[in-house]
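Re: beginner question about structure tokens

> Can someone show what the tokenized structure looks like for a real chain? I only ever see the sequence side.

Sure, here's an example I had lying around. Input first:
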Amino acid sequence: MVAGSARVRDEVHIGWHRDWGDIPAGDWDALLTGVEGARPFLCRDVLQAMVDSGSACADTGWQPHVLTVHGTNGRLLGACPTFAKSHSYGEYVFDWAWADAHDRALASHGHHYFPKLLGAVPFSPIPGQRLLVHPGLDAAAQAAVRQTLLDALQAECAQQGWSSAHLLFLSEAEALQAERSGWLLRHGVQFHWCNRAPQPFADFDDFLASLHRDKRKKIQQERRKVREAGVHFEVREGADISPADWDFFYRCYAQTYLERGQQPYLTPAFWQAAALARPEAWVLFIAQHEGRPIACALLAVDREQGVAYGRYWGALASVSCLHFEACYYQPLSWCIAQGLRRFEGGAQGEHKLARGLLPVTTQSAHWLRHPGLRQAVADFLQREDQGVRAYVNELDERQPFKPCLSAPDGAATMSE
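And the corresponding structure tokens:
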């Protein structure tokens, strides 16, 4: 074990890798121990599957450019899941306006916003650690490794002539350390459901009883519409999800994108590989009508942390309130039955508040090389943060729970 922060800073080797295969899976996944938001999304075999399947790879503008920190004994002390990005699609933190302002001012001088350096979970707004550190290090050494990672990200941008580095949906502690290092912070809002503590909900009816009467009645009405339409759900978990189930899920997933005139980010080959690599991580809720499947929603689960993540859904038929049933009520019922402590409903979606998902602020950190752009973005973020704070305060005043229940653990507001 490295004893102190000074030794960590002095006795490390910084590495950059264009192939996840350069890093042994066991070494990488050891950094994920106890890390929320890491499993299954940051497991090395899942990240490798994104490249091998043609989903997040150089051809799609996601060139792996993975940062590692090794000790002198070869031990992997820290890492960051980073990509050289040639665009800003699939990120959920939008910086297109920054790119436009940068290039209008500097493109004529040969400086372009893209490529940029991005630390994130591809295609998913999953909050969690981005500066991964070996759990066997003491607190001071962990902080030193995180600082080494931050410094290396900046140095690499400077050396490559890249415009910027970005860490999306990172933890609050990481965000504060990045801010102390001169990075700009940007806040957003997600909606998470948290199980009641210390006495978890007994079942979905128990959860409903905790809501205001108007919210409870609305949910009951929405569920009744789905039942009266003759729709019921079958739940498939882990190894019980068949290849045919995965094929149907992909049809639904792709349909959601096609309805928006877009191509799906993740290919069928990715889902095949992810299902084989991490079968325990996936749950499908398949809507059936008159003996045939008509819709499907996917849940990713980190059982170690007790957290479920609502990810993708799609429908091949139109049924009133089917989206709410598939994406919220079925997953919440399952989470309660499993004793999970949190369900994250994904990006945005104020309609989730009325269904018991509470506002949680997220943090992203941004380092911009050009001082003029940095100042302009800093001014913008200051104004944006004021709006986010007002929005969170307004949402807090519309709590769906009865007054006797405080906000569940995990709900958060922006610090003053």
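Each token stands for a local structural state, so reading them left to right follows the chain. DSSP finds twelve helices and 15 strands in the chain.
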